[in-house]
Amino acid sequence: MVNSLTQQQKQDRAQRIGDAAFALFKTQSFGKITMAAIAKQAGVSKGTLFNYFESKESLFMTILLDGYHQYFDQLIIQINQRPSFDLADFLTLLLTETGNLIDHHSLLVRLNALRGPILERGANMSQTITHRQSFYATSERLATVIHDRISKLSVAEISQLFIVQTAMISGMMNLSGLDEFNHQRLFDHDFEHFKIHLKPDTVATFRYYLQGKYPNVNLVKP
């Protein structure tokens, strides 16, 4: 019974369920993953799984928000460890982390591309709001840490830059499969000019945006 567990035990079980779902997402599309498969992977019953998450969308929405929460926590540590950190450093960091997200956090990026069109349709609103509030608090803390080092940037402006970064990655990812159908290459058709090279094209596009917004800053190539 969920109610007989301590708060820490509940958190540990929820984490185990999230880890199991994330592991399945590494090899399967969202649509092919079932709650039964997640329960089996996590070593819990389907009834227990539904006690924690009422839908697959709620579970993956939680994974998404908590994942970015942890990622922002890591950025805070990274920035605090730098002896100096000016506007050029920050903009270069944004470009570097754009590539890092694509290379090393690709599952979070994939999930974020599903957030609006798929996850929000079936996710529990109350649960989503709780995790979004927690993520927002971390986002504000990250922006404040940067603002304290670069006073010319407001907390709102810094937050907006991270939103633009995320939007560019998700948008490019959604367009990167125009030469595919259901993740299969359309080898019988020539869609050469539909092809997008996700990491270099996204980083280049974001660089153009930042250079237009901050034309007096010399951006070092990450």
Structure explained in plain terms:
It is a single chain. A two-stranded antiparallel ribbon has the order 1-2. Residues 178-183 have low confidence and may be disordered. It is 70% helix and 2% strand. The protein has helices spanning 7-25, 35-42, 46-52, 56-80, 87-104, 106-122, 125-149, 155-175, 198-213, and strands at 180-181, 184-185. The relative contact order is 0.11. It folds into 2 domains: 1-52, Homeodomain-like (Arc Repressor Mutant, subunit A), CATH 1.10.10.60; 56-213, Orthogonal Bundle (Tetracycline Repressor, domain 2), CATH 1.10.357.10. It is built from 9 helices and 2 strands. The protein is mainly alpha-helical and 222 residues long. Residues 11-71 form the HTH tetR-type domain.
